Amino acid sequence: MPLPWPLSGSLDLSRTAVVVIDMQTDFCGPNGWIDRLGQSIANTRKPIEPIARLLKAARAAGMTIIHTREGHRPDLTDLNPVKRWRSRAHGVGIGDESNLGRALTRGEPGHDIIPELYPEPGEIVVDKPGKSSFHATEFDNVLRARGIEAIIIAGVTSDCCVQSTMRDASDLGYDCILVTDGTQAVENTNHEGMLAVIAAHGGRWGASSTADEINAMIAKVAEAA
Amino acid sequence: MMKTFQPVASRPYAWPYTGAWTLADTALFLVDFQREAVAETKAEATVAALAPLLAAWRAAGGFVIHGRRGFDPHVGLPRVLAARNAARPLDRILPRGSEGWEIVPELAPVDGEPVIEHAGDNAFLGTDLNFLIEQRKIANLVFAGLRTEGAVHATMRAANDVGLESLLLEDGTTTDLAGAKDTILNITRFGSGLFGTTTTIAVLRDAIA
């Protein structure tokens, strides 16, 4: 039996944030890092439309919207050696020249968020050097400063940064819901496996639902306000 | 002089990536081999398989860290975590000191081996784990533990973010959630080792023999 979301029983839009993880050209745009590695971006582009609808609903309701970007300082002082080694072993090293500037490097075209989901003025962008949005960032400070208690998580990839962020958010006491059609992985078996793990035990780290179902919840509360 | 070991055969590459390791820069991390978790996941065989490795590791002078999941009953869990925890019959976070919370005797900590008391899954959150690792200049972590998709994976993810080189023992971890172990092993090895590499207990034992 899935547990309800939010667990408090009533959705408070002023205490709920939409978090869109790493919808960057390097992960889901043509000529980005994943594309350059020769891996398909077909899967990582699937969440674009559902996330666009979610952002539309959240903007209309005046909710806190946070976008994250994975990437490193141009001097790479925040790139740990094993991450650099593995990315080079994989084909194109982080910080090395790729098709759209240096891969996953802040300030480069490939590092930025795709035009379809580009942040609007007033929306928060958190740059992160790791997989978890909480690692070595101000993400938790931002959530606490806004009084956020529940977070709606979308983005890529479901098996990597989305997962690390949702797990840490859960451990820290945030009430999470994963947007099932608003997230994807490069490899579908990993994506499906992760959704199954998330759904186990009634939602071990949080709930799961589709963008349209979440949008309907947001709209219902926004209309009543 | 501490012996330098050759890389260990593992997937998707020989661990560690630096090409050499010692018992000074590496720790064996036994995550949450607690009575209730061992019983629920039927991990008795996993425990039995790990005991000789633990003995060999200790005999060689290796450093061991233990994880023990639980919450302080005087504090409780964060509200949301408490509600989700109370709603599931299995994989419960237990109050510290309660029945089933203690580590099974076969893998129990000995003097000098730190026990990380963590309330959530990621043993780095709200604990001194990273501080201890930095103080000892640990670069590599060998993981075994329960459950594969739970604290083991959450902690490996966090170890990866702080730049540690992780090796997961495939037969040193298990779970009662069908399909989850394969999912986690695949994700761990995805690409060129998204969160580290994996091998077997026997391969690691041979490496330190």
TrEMBL record, chain B:
<dbReference type="GO" id="GO:0016787">
    <property type="term" value="F:hydrolase activity"/>
</dbReference>
<protein>
    <submittedName>
        <fullName>Nicotinamidase-related amidase</fullName>
    </submittedName>
</protein>
<feature type="domain" description="Isochorismatase-like">
    <location>
        <begin position="26"/>
        <end position="175"/>
    </location>
</feature>
<dbReference type="InterPro" id="IPR050272">
    <property type="entry name" value="Isochorismatase-like_hydrls"/>
</dbReference>
<keyword id="KW-0378">Hydrolase</keyword>
<dbReference type="Pfam" id="PF00857">
    <property type="entry name" value="Isochorismatase"/>
</dbReference>
<dbReference type="InterPro" id="IPR036380">
    <property type="entry name" value="Isochorismatase-like_sf"/>
</dbReference>
<dbReference type="InterPro" id="IPR000868">
    <property type="entry name" value="Isochorismatase-like_dom"/>
</dbReference>
